[in-house]
Amino acid sequence: MNPSSALAANNVGFLYYKMDKFDEALRWYEKTIVIDHRRYQAYANLGDLYYQLNRTADAQRIYEKFLELAPKSPYAPTVRARLGK
Questions:
Q1: Does pLDDT of 2 surpass 80?
Q2: Helices in the chain by DSSP H: which ranges?
Q3: Which residues touch 75 (CB under 8 Å, ≥6 apart)?
Q4: Distance CA 15, CA 6 (A)
Q5: First-to-last CA distance in the chain?
Q6: What is the pLDDT of residues 22-54, one digit of tens each?
């Protein structure tokens, strides 16, 4: 794996998320954003992680960044619904 690849880092984070290894997922999603702060998928994934952990304020902050970067993403309606709760 290329350690400077935002795609690879995000995918590793997603794998950890799916295995319920949330601390590791968090670390990799944050690394993704450091590598490429415009990678909106990482914000969606990180927001989902915070949402899963009931970290509402963190989820809101990250989801808002996602919507700023990708307002027309197919996932945007789901994020907007979560923010509306």
A1: no
A2: 6-18, 22-35, 40-52, 56-69, 76-84
A3: 44, 66
A4: 14
A5: 38
A6: 999 999 999 999 999 999 999 999 999 999 999
